[in-house]
Amino acid sequence: MKIIKVGASITASNDRDADAIRAKMKEKKTLLINLMSSPGSGKTTFLSRLIKDMKDLKIGVMEADIESAVDAERIEALGAKAIQVHTSGMCHMDAGMTGKALDALDDGEHLDLIFLENVGNLICPAEYDTGAGLNIMILSVPEGHDKPLKYPLMFLKSDALIISKIDALPYFTFDLDACRKYTDDLNPGMPVFPLSAKAGDGMAEFEEWLRGKLADWTSETE
Amino acid sequence: MHEMGIVLHMVKTLNETAKENDLKRIARVTLEVGEVSGIMTDLFEDCFDYFKAKHPIISDCKLVLKTIPAVTWCNSCEKTYETVRYGRTCPYCGSGETWLLTGNECVIKEIEAE
């Protein structure tokens, strides 16, 4: 009997796969974005708006859900490339699943941005590195401003926070300043973009930021 | 289920380690699990049993889970305190400028094998 010191994180194999995806995307000059949120926060509505606004960019979308293809159908109707990924009951996407989805999406045409619309869930997706170059979280106004206190990990792991459905602010007791403060305590300096994908308010600020990130991604060398 | 995904990755790492070290059978695996890592150890063991039946290399493997206490550091008064008891706010000075030092681990410490 021999003892082997491993000392590896349980998700070590996932982390390796994720790094390999990032290197590959860098080489292809494609920015992979992991979009995380609760179910019903407006991820698909937000992406629909973004695709319409940023027509000069080639955008691909991978819709991860436990069941159905309704989201991918919505995105395809806008002319973007979309695939539906079924997670077979799994509550998150990991790097292995993301790698397979990327292969399925790839038909040889260059894409500037690929969005991975992760499973709607504020907990598990934050624990798995998908290989994305950017992690973006959406929190919608009806969910409440206290979510950074209840689900801190996702706010810690994200590179930007979108507060969606701000057109509904008059009907809810969502405190934007308090939400900003809770978020800043967890992840100092993380940009916060309050917006309404339905009305269009705030989209321009986010899109400008995203263009900057894409320029950084495609110009940096490893 | 959350634990299922974690165990799936652990089994993958175990299989890789076995291959690298030319191991035939893993008798025991020791894990360090942080107090606030979000892993429910009972569920974790049930999931591991499910995978044991599918992977001959771990069919008799014993799972040893070691809990790592959660400790938070306060950047204002430079003291440490128990995370589970006091949360994010320092009990000594009331500051919210605190960081988790330990307690979020999920590490395969060692394996015992033939």
Top keywords for this entry?
heterodimer; A: 222 residues; alpha/beta; 8 helices; 22% strand; B: 114 residues; alpha+beta; three-stranded antiparallel sheet; 6 strands
Average pLDDT rating of chain B: 90
Instruction: Output the helix-strand order of chain A.
Output: EHEHEHEHEEHHEHEH
Strand order, sheet with most strands of chain A = 4-3-5-2-6-7-8
Judged by helices, strands and strand pairing, the structural class of chain B is alpha+beta
Overall, the morphology of chain B is elongated
So what's the oligomer here?
A: heterodimer
Instruction: Give the spatial strand order of the biggest sheet of chain B.
Output: 2-1-6
DSSP strand content of chain A: 15-25%
Q: Specify the structural class of chain A.
A: alpha/beta
Largest sheet of chain B: 3 strands, mixed
Instruction: Count every helix of chain A, treating DSSP H or I runs of 4 or more residues as helices.
Output: 8
Describe what this molecule looks like in 3D:
The complex is a heterodimer of chains A (222) and B (114). Chain A is 38% helix and 22% strand. Chain A is built from eight helices and eight strands; from the N terminus they run E-H-E-H-E-H-E-H-E-E-H-H-E-H-E-H. In chain A, strand 3, helix 3 and strand 4 form a beta-alpha-beta unit. The longest helix of chain A has 17 residues, at 12-28. The N and C termini of chain A lie far apart (43 Å). The model of chain A has no long low-confidence stretch (mean pLDDT 92). Chain B is an alpha+beta fold and 114 residues long. In chain B, the strands form two sheets. In chain B, strands 2-1-6 form a three-stranded mixed sheet. In chain B, helix 1 (2-20) crosses helix 2. The longest helix of chain B is centred in the first third of the chain and has 19 residues, at 2-20. Chain B starts with a helix and ends with a strand. The model of chain B has no long low-confidence stretch (mean pLDDT 90). The A-B interface holds A 1-14, 89-92, 94, 123-124, 127-128, 152-153, 185 and B 1-2, 4-6, 9-10, 12-13, 16-17, 21, 23, 27, 31, 38, 88, 96-97, 106-114. Strand 1 of chain A pairs antiparallel with strand 6 (106-113) of chain B.
